[in-house]
Amino acid sequence: MAKEYWQEIGGLLLQMKLISYGDTAAMSLLCDVLAQWVSVRVTIAKRGRVYELLTPGGKVFRARPEVAMEADLWRRAKTMLTEFGLTPASRSKVSALVVKDEKDPLAALMEEAQ
What we know:
The chain is mostly helical and 114 residues long. The protein is 61% helix and 11% strand. It has one domain (2-113).
């Protein structure tokens, strides 16, 4: 699933000119965290958000450990999404990479001829 996020988000960031080769580690973290978050959400959907515990005092309901994991993973994902300008509020704070325009080969050839 992380690979799917890599392709989807990477493609989007390339189109927006917001990513370079130096962002590989950060992009890997983002994709990994999103994949983990989805996995935990699937587990919660199957098992529920709480479980029943029998104690000497009776039944007690507790949150599953996955619920805390889900919240932590979402915070981490949101932080990484913000770093890349992929939330509405953060989008205005990032700018596209400046790519120097390459000269048109024909124009370069014509300049040399003069």
